[in-house]
Amino acid sequence: MPALLFWSWWCLLSEMGSQSDAVLVRRILDGQVELFQVLVERYRTEFGRYATAMLGGDVDDAADALQEAFIRAYRSLASCRDRERFKAWLFRIVSNQCHNTRRARRRHVSLDRIEEPEDSAAARRVDDTEIGQTIEAALNELTGEQREAFVLKHVEGYSYAEMASLLDVGEDALKMRVHRARDELRHKLEGLR
Amino acid sequence: MTDEKRFSPEAQRYLDGEPVDGLDQTELAAADLFGQVIQDYAASLRTPGAEVDRAVMDAIVPRARNHRPASFWRWLVQPHLFTVRPALVAAAAITLVAIGALTIDIPGFTGGEQAAGTTTDQPATILVRFELRAPDADEVTLAGSFNDWSPQGVQLVKNAASGLWTATVPLTPGEHQYLFVIDGSQWIPDPSAHAQVDDGFGQANSVIVVGPRGVVRS
Hints:
The complex is a heterodimer.
Chain A: H1 2-18, H2 21-29, H3 36-54, H4 59-75, H5 86-115, H6 118-123, H7 130-141, H8 144-155, H9 160-167, H10 171-190
Helix pairs in contact in A: 3-4, 3-5, 3-8, 4-5, 7-10, 8-10
Chain B: H1 9-15, H2 25-44, H3 51-67, H4 71-77, H5 86-103, E1 126-133, E2 140-144, E3 154-155, E4 157-159, E5 164-171, E6 174-182, E7 186-188, E8 195-198, E9 204-211, E10 214-217
Antiparallel strand pairs in B: 1-5, 2-3, 2-6, 4-5, 6-7, 6-9, 8-9, 9-10
């Protein structure tokens, strides 16, 4: 009997986690706001890694961007008409937030350099090796589109078909962006030798 | 950048994970090294932790409760469609029976008896006619709380002479919210609706109230 009880409860608890995005969105809009946490947990790691790579390896900035993106997504959830494509809709919000964060950071970069001790800035880096910093510096020099495509391909490990679905861009155009990004990175990395 | 610093098309295809023929050994080594370096970098990236979940939920749950105080009552009176999984229903039933068996002393309970069958009264549906004058539209559909806001759910039929689009929809008694969808992209409220309500996110939904004997208010 205890095993049966445990199985029954496990089924009930795991039910929420196995609901499709579309069903969860409908329930959230019906008033079950707490279910939004299921969506946050579902995409936090995947989009968090993307945000970290897009923001030069700064996990604190990535956490802030991700948090803001999720809150924006909740506030505009009713405008997500095609709920079967919730993931792509959410990704655009995360992506836009990352671009906004980068723009804001560029505006304040000179001030940050004066106020922030160099040691602190270095400590926030995910990788303080020369190669890691070179990759981050090289990613920063790419266009936003190239950086995004490269991160999705090589950091997230998406196929071109998955990327095309997320970004609503053709596979050939995405390949071109990734190829150019690779050439730029190779060029930078060769300089280390 | 010189061509020497670029990957050849074959090496690019190799890095894309596609099959390639005749890739030069030097290029192959360079591509493998590049792939390994990037893989190591990706593995070194940290990701935001569960603090993001807490911050997001702290920000939205009070907001939702403050802005939608009547949502529970609205949920109670609105019709809902539920999807269930047989395994989940079985799990819930077993849980309830098990809890009952553990907490209530039922003489003669063996766990094998079957409860008497029960019947559920289905609420009667009322046929409601929706109309929208849109002579320039190529397609008009109806999306609402009664069809899970699916824009493909109800197609309206056009009277070419008058430009009037109509559809008759069976609705259960209760309050329903809806919008018209023109040409698959433009969501508009019903201009002839008696009431429009804020959907809680800054947009207006039309409201229709259906009683057991017909439309109470539209």
